[in-house]
Amino acid sequence: MTASDRFLPNLASSFSAFLEAEPGRVHLCAHSHHPWPDVSREGQMRAWNAAARLVDEKWEEVLGPVLAACQAHIAKRLNLPDPRSLVFAPNTHDFVCRILSAMPLGRPIRVLTSDAEFHSFARQIARLEEEGLVSVTRIAATPYQTCLERLIDAARLGQDLIWVSEVFFSSGFALTGLQSLAEAAGDAVMVVDGYHAFMARPVDFSPLAHRAFYVAGGYKYAMAGEGCAFLHCPPGWLPRPRDTGWYAAFGSLAAGDGKVGYAQDGWRFMGATFDPSGLYRLEAVMNWLDAEGLTVERIHDHALALGERFVSGLEGTGLDASRLVVPVAESARGNFLTFDLPDAGDWQARLATARIITDRRESRLRFGFGLYQTPAMIDEALDRIRALPR
Predict the structure, then answer these.
(1) What angle do CA 36, 97, 66 make, to 5 degrees?
(2) Could you tell me the CA-to-CA distances from 188 to 125, 213, 236 in Å, in that order?
(3) Confidence band of 2 (pLDDT split at 50, 70, 90)
(4) Residue 95's closest CA among 269, 278, 282?
(5) What letter would DSSP give residue 199?
(6) Residue 141 near residue 172, CB atoms below 8 Å
(7) Helix (H, G, I), strand (E, B) or coil at 161
């Protein structure tokens, strides 16, 4: 296969609303805020029209065929055995709190995690740590090649909750071999944060579906926007979270002991009334991807090829491939590249003057690649970078 064979056809016309909203902008933040394809607007309008047509009865549609379609789309892409294990919430933080609410009482919760987790978990767990409610073991994400091994060693010491990203948001490194971590976890609850993996890298979660939770959402690579985070809930794990909304009672068995009843499948982690428009957008985008034959494998390979093209053209830009946190040749990575630069803030500001949109986390400047981009867009970005005043 030649390099050109790895690129998808030009899909810019399918993203016309976003790409034409500010002509001349080169958006290299596919890992942070991905443009939405035009079909997402149709999904948004479908949600509005359903509310107008059905009023209160819209929930039969939302929690019936729309939710079931979204479950099926996600389950197919994660290779889950049962779509009913999936539930939705406005954001992943809702699931962080709900999972924490199911942890044992009477002593600090023993938490194993990395030092490279996203804010929705990292901030919350740090705040609980201030109060002595959790005891946290943070494993350094670097060096990446030994991160999993060190997580496994810490897991064997005994934990209550293990929370780890499949792709680290601060670098793009992909943590493979998570089944080994699950085997070392004992009775600990295990949660995989897949936000930078879902729809970015091929994911087969079937070996862990019975054992681990998986949390991600539509905001980034799924291109559906806010409001449709999801959680895969392994059967039997954490059956009665204390943080519970009234939707969690749907399908519950009649409780003869006077206790609050819960559904037996993933619905035990449902919350309460929410804005359903994200589900309509998600369904519309997933249907479009299927119709176009745009599999995760093809999208990922396109993104990798764009990243390789970007790095191969760095000469004369002032950016040095040796400053990449994860080398472009590393196969275990997501769809973005991260440069560790002492003047990353200055770089981001200078790029913005050339209308190149990037993302920065302290000293780390990130360039994201996605299916809406073409090789010509990457070449244009490189030309603009070379033209920047030094």
Answers:
(1) 40
(2) 17, 12, 13
(3) low
(4) 269
(5) T
(6) no
(7) strand
Per-residue confidence (pLDDT) for residue 3, from 0 to 100: 67
Torsions phi, psi for 349 (to 5 deg): -65, -40
Place of tokens 């579906």: 209
Predicted confidence band of residue 1 (pLDDT cuts 50, 70, 90): low
Rounded mean pLDDT of 174-186? Answer: 97
pLDDT tens sequence across 125-150 = 999 999 999 999 999 999 999 999 99
List, in order, residues 6 or more apart from 101 with CB less than 8 Å away. 241, 242, 243, 244
Between the CA atoms of 195, 197, 198 and 200, what dihedral angle is there, to the nearest 10 degrees?
Answer: 120
Instruction: Evaluate whether 225 touches 42 at the Cβ level (below 8 Å).
Output: no
Q: Starting at the edge strand that comes first in sequence, how are the strands of the sheet with 364-368 ordered? A: 336-340, 364-368, 359-361
Residue entry with tokens 């962080």: 96
pLDDT tier for residue 390 given thresholds of 50, 70 and 90: confident
Q: In sequence order, what are the residues at sequence separation of 6 or more whose Cβ sits closer than 8 angstroms to the Cβ of residue 247?
A: 63, 267, 270, 271, 272, 273
Contacts of residue 64, Cβ cutoff 8 Å, sequence gap at least 6: none
* Confidence grade of residue 35 (pLDDT, cut at 50, 70, 90): very high
- Is cis: bond before 143, omega within 30 of 0? yes
**Average pLDDT score over residue span 208-220:** 97
Q: Are 110 and 159 contacting, i.e. CB atoms less than 8 angstroms apart?
A: yes
pLDDT for residue 318 is more than 80: yes
Residues whose CB falls within 8 Å of the CB of residue 113, separated by 6 or more in sequence, listed in order: 121, 122, 125, 136, 137, 138, 139, 162, 163, 164
Helices 296-312 & 375-386 angle (0-180, nearest 10): 30
